[in-house]
Design a protein that fits this description.
- The protein contains 21 helices and four strands.
- The chain is mostly helical and 484 residues long.
- The strands form two sheets. It has a two-stranded antiparallel sheet. A two-stranded antiparallel sheet has the order 2-3.
- The longest helix has 34 residues.
- The relative contact order is 0.21.
Amino acid sequence: MESQDPQIPQKKDPQIPQPHNHALQTPPTETTHHSPLFSCAANFAYKMKANLGFRSKCAELNGAMGDLGTYIPIVLALTLADGLNLGTTLIFTGVYNIITGAIYGVPMPVQPMKAIAAVAISGTGFGVPEIMAAGIITGGVLFVLGVTGLMQLVYKLIPLSVVRGIQLAQGLSFALTAVKYVRTVQNFSKSKSMGNRPWLGLDGLVLAIVCACFIVTVNGAGEEMEHTDERETTNGHDEEESPNTRKRRNLRNFIFSLPSAFLIFLLGVVLAFIRNPKVVNDIKFGPSSIEVVKISKHEWKEGFIKGAIPQLPLSILNSVVAVCKLSSDLFPGRDFSPTSLSVTVGLMNVIGCWFGAMPSCHGAGGLAGQYKFGGRSGGCVAILGTAKLILGLVLGTSLAKILNQFPVGVLGVLLLFAGIELAMASRDMNTKEESFVMLTCTAVSLVGSSAALGFVCGIVAHLLLRLRNFSKDQPRSTIWMRDP
């Protein structure tokens, strides 16, 4: 291979997608003078266009499916068990997806608030008014933490090893739930397993195993194969290949470029109609009616105690702190402020929950899942948001009849890879002490089923280790500082 002088600009191969960073781009300078209002509007339009631009249409479409393994089961369970208005939820979360994609320029997810959903599904006397009260209170607290700057302070004080522990716990929790979906038949309306899943059938183990093998074949463990192919093309190996070798390489490139998650989701939709053809008769066209939810004093109290209190630690840690750190890992140079994320989560719920939309937040698991399947821009979640918006306006709540027939084992496969991708973010612990704190946090979070309890134990372990290694030459402030 010929050596290249780094001072001489190299000619770019037009067939290789060049890396780009919209955050570093600036709109072209204007040669004519315009009013400040016009310039502001032009800059805003340019930023929206850059944030919603596609790196690859197939990859972004595939990435949009990466969050459905979490989204569908929770939304379906709330709809069947608690009477959640699915049409309203789809419309509002679709708008959320489009707005967050335009603002952040990365596949920022919109997920259900899991602690509130768990209480609603497993408990009695916690209906739609209580769910919405919990969402409004949680959103209001996050909004206040954001606008006052306190969320930024929280982000700076939490050690990286504790953040990684929360991410690892959440990723493993997703993966374990996914395995449960694959192995056992699920009744989402009662949140119970109904026995072992049969091997054969339209929702059998064989189908799930085949889908999992297909995703591994296409996506592998990441993007290493994609980078290898680019290096081979750049070095000019394709000019020296024999026809048979070139055909094999083209076949490999074709297979590795397939939108695996989208194809599997499309297969699940087809199988849903095959499993119960009569579901077509239950479809009613038109949006669901949107009404303001009436919440009594007792329902506000129940929503705060049973829903908001357990949800707040999870939202702060997984929806803001962990998302900020994961976004900086996956998209270098595209760091986002905890203040911004806290405010957007707050506004989503302070507005949408009054109309019966499911309490929503960002989530590190959704971001990892969409990245795993190819999502790289805000256009990824904008695609998903547009699809939700159309389905909510066209089918409304009747869509629940179709989703109830969707193969749960297939959803489990999508959720499995999203969980693994999130858990893999914790592989950057450099010392034994960092790993100790991370695993302590993870173990307590999983066994205790509480991210808040795991967070407290992780912080205690971190402080004890810092005190143990404390020397007089170090300032006392280093005890509280984030791990480098």
